[in-house]
Amino acid sequence: MKTDLQLKKDVLAELEWDPSINASQVGVAAKDGVVTLTGHLDTYAEKHAVERAVQRVLGVKGIAVELDVKLDAGHKRSDSEIAAAAEAAFKWHALVPDDRIQVKVEKGWLTLMGQVDWEYQRREAEKAVRSLTGVVGVSIAITLKPVATPANVSNRIRDALTRHADDEAKHIEVIVKDAKVILRGKVDSWVERSAASAAAWSAPGVTGVVNELTVY
């Protein structure tokens, strides 16, 4: 198990390695596997990149994000400009049903609303707008269209987990209540934790995933 000092060094090294991140703007602290990030960033896209970079580091059990976005003059856009850019991004994205998503912008903060069929469509919608100039944050209020959940959905999720990583699947408990999935157990890394969640979301009829997996 890594010491807090080693974990902090590894996180800083990963941030410095990623060319999309200005590591000098990010403060890092580590305690018992939980990494706390502080600082002011120029764009929301960079904030997301920082979070993803930390998740890649082995030994990270949790992340506390205390980063905020402060746009410089060159990145500022009006709310109407951001809304128009978001709508255009959806129209040019093959995986986003643009006619089923509405956009609200308030002081640079984007809220996406509407209803789609699959979780991947909701994720792609967020991806399409996170890098837009002027965006300081994104909230997802998109719901999933109710679909009948197959009786064997828990077995299908477990089969998917096994296909991805047989050893890890043995330590994951899959609980299905109505259309919601609860994942419990332990995994080796944050990446595996996210992968398990993605596998659960891919099951037909699932409208919610509660990821209670811990990283050891």
What would you note in describing this structure?
- With 216 residues, this protein is an alpha/beta fold.
- It contains seven helices and nine strands, in the order αββαβαββαβααββαβ.
- It has helices at residues 4-17, 44-55, 79-91, 119-130, 153-164, 166-169, 190-201, and strands spanning 26-31, 34-41, 62-69, 101-106, 109-116, 137-144, 172-177, 180-187, 208-215.
- The strands form three sheets. Strands 1-2-3 form a three-stranded mixed beta sheet. It has a three-stranded mixed beta sheet with strand order 4-5-6.
- A hairpin with a 2-residue loop joins strand 7 and strand 8 (180-187).
- Helix 5 runs antiparallel to helix 7 (190-201).
- The longest helix is centred in the N-terminal third of the chain and has 14 residues, at 4-17.
- The chain is flat, with a radius of gyration of 19 Å.
- The model has no long low-confidence stretch (mean pLDDT 92).
CA-based gyration radius: 19 Å
Mean pLDDT: 92
Would you state the CATH class of the largest domain? Answer: Alpha Beta
Q: What's the number of extended β-strand segments? A: 9
Q: Tell me the strand percentage band.
A: 25-35%
Task: Give the helix tally.
Answer: 7
Ends apart, CA distance between termini:
9 Å
**What low-confidence regions span 5 or more consecutive residues with pLDDT below 50?**
none
Strand order across the largest sheet: 1-2-3
Shape: flat
